[in-house]
Amino acid sequence: MPSRQLLILRRGYKTCYNLNAPNYLSFMRNIGIYLEQLLRQRNLQELSPAPVMFPALQTLDVISGTSTNSFHASDLLWLMHHCPCLRDLSLNDLSFDNPRLTEVPPAQTNVEFLAMNSIQIKTSKWFPLLSSMFPALLSLRLDFNFVNGGPRVDRIEKGISDWIIGNNSLTSLRIRRFELGWPMVLEYLIDAARSGTWNCQLKHFGLSTINAFDRLLERDGHTLVSSLDSLQLDLLFSYFWDLYRSFDENDPSSFPLCVFPPCNLATSTLANLTTLRFKKCGERIKPSLSWLLNLCPNLSSAILCGFIVQIDACQLHHPNLMPARTGLTELALETCFIVQADSFFSFLQHDLPRLSSLTLVHANIFGLSSAPSLDFGDRLMKLLCFAGISSKFNKCSSLCLEQTQHFRRWSWFSSPTNTSQGKLLYPSNQEYPFHVRCGIADQVLFDKSWYGFM
Predict the structure, then answer these.
(1) Is 22's pLDDT higher than 60?
(2) How confident is the model over 156-195, as pLDDT tens digits?
(3) CA-derived radius of gyration, the chain
(4) What are residue 96's DSSP bridge partners?
(5) In this model, does residue 149 exceed pLDDT 80?
(6) Who contacts 71 (Cβ-Cβ below 8 Å, separation ≥6)?
(7) What's residue 47's pLDDT?
(8) Alpha carbon distance 120, 96 (integer Å)
């Protein structure tokens, strides 16, 4: 009989293992495998059964290959038999075709993380099967395609929501694609949480490319998000302004903007959040940092992508908003317009006393009365990351960093003509520096070109 071999993809490298020598595989803990390799090995074992192939495997990625992406329930059952210690399973770019089994599948109580990325679902019968096979999931990531001409969408919606609601151990849920069918899934989850038919244990929740984020933050959705530790939203929102109205193109604050989070949001809705990531995928949306921190008093990490950011709250709804006491330690603004820049820099320096990690990537700064400068005094900073920063029509071409707690005070420029440690040097007239002063910075990243940095 010819030697049986299995091609395994691990960290981007292909290695050929001889399955007649099981010692090669007995110690493997993290691998990736193409679907056709899995199917080929299964066919070989039907002729000559072999012992469990991956007795110590904990993390597995199954990847669609070039010859087939058709995945059957019997394939999943066979795979679970050969991975008795598996904890993390990722299924990628597969077509879930045949859910029929000749026997009741055993429960895989050791599997705690399941990711289904770019999966085509052809029948709603898969969901009771997945629910019975993986009853102890802690984390679930879903990215499904609803196949044209396939099952009724309402059955898929109900199958997905029943699967989620029926898992009493689930603490992390991420829905990556939000298109036809997904809004109704969200409705089912909100209704079940509100009515108490779902004992929701979620602490981490993420929704990508959604067009109904306000529904999640309305009163009915409060029970779904009020107990969360972390929330990730990719906002799909369009706002059409009056084309005949004139605007100052150099001042984004003059454009009509939609405020997020909404001004009428109950202050208890996001009170337990410690981590958030909001990304905009649409027209202009404006978050207020002061309003956001009042809504999230326990926030420690915030990432905002693609917004027009200001400090002040809406004067119509919150004219006398008091500054929030905050323990925010990490703030990242990516691809953002920053208006009221003088207030913004003052806010970073004086109103965020525990801030130790600051990231500004592709940031356009407006309303700055002088050269960009941050003075954190003797504060210890874990991370300073600046890339593609522009103020007015000038792009910051260098970084001047002064660290006060070194044995000698010194400054460093990213692209000076002359440098020497221990002596304060200023860049040439052709440069536009960004000045930062702090005690000590553990990690500093700078690039005047955003695309080169990313």
Answers:
(1) no
(2) 888 899 999 999 899 999 988 655 567 788 888 989 988 8
(3) 27
(4) 71, 121
(5) no
(6) 35, 62, 91, 94, 95, 96, 97
(7) 65
(8) 6
CA distance linking residue 134 with residue 90, whole number of Å: 13
Assigned domain for 399 exists: yes
Strands annotated E in 330-375: 330-338, 357-365, 373-375
End-to-end CA distance of the chain: 51
Q: Cα–Cα distance between 443 and 112 in angstroms, integer?
A: 34
Domains held by the chain: number:
1
244, pLDDT greater than 70: no
Tell me the DSSP string of 318-339: -TTPPPPP----EEEEEEEEE-
Q: 195: buried, middle or exposed (CB in 10 Å: 19+, 13-18, 0-12)?
A: exposed
| Dist CA 423 CA 438 (whole Å) | 17
Range of lowest pLDDT (88-97, 175-184, 362-371, 400-409): 175-184
Contact indicator for 247, 256 with CB cutoff of 8 Å: no
Q: Judge whether 332 lies within some domain.
A: yes
Q: What's the residue count for the chain?
A: 454
For 266-318, what is each residue's pLDDT tens digit?
888 899 999 999 988 655 678 889 999 999 999 999 999 988 898 888 777 78
DSSP 143-199: EEEEPTTSS-HHHHHHHHHHHHHH-TT--EEEE----TTHHHHHHHHHHHHHHTSS-
Which is it for strands 390-391 and 357-365: parallel, antiparallel or unpaired? parallel
Tokens for 333?
């603004």
Indicate yes or no: pTM above 0.70.
yes
- Decide if 230 is inside a domain: no
- The pLDDT value recorded for residue 264 is 81
Q: Which of 363, 384, 273 is nearest to 324 (CA)?
A: 273
- Residue linked to tokens 């609601």: 165
- Domain range for 383 is 324-416+431-453
Residue 349 within any structural domain of the chain: yes
Q: List the structure tokens of 46.
A: 């039907």
Tell whether the model's pLDDT for residue 331 goes beyond 90: yes
CA distances to 5, 50, 349 from 22, in Å: 11, 10, 59
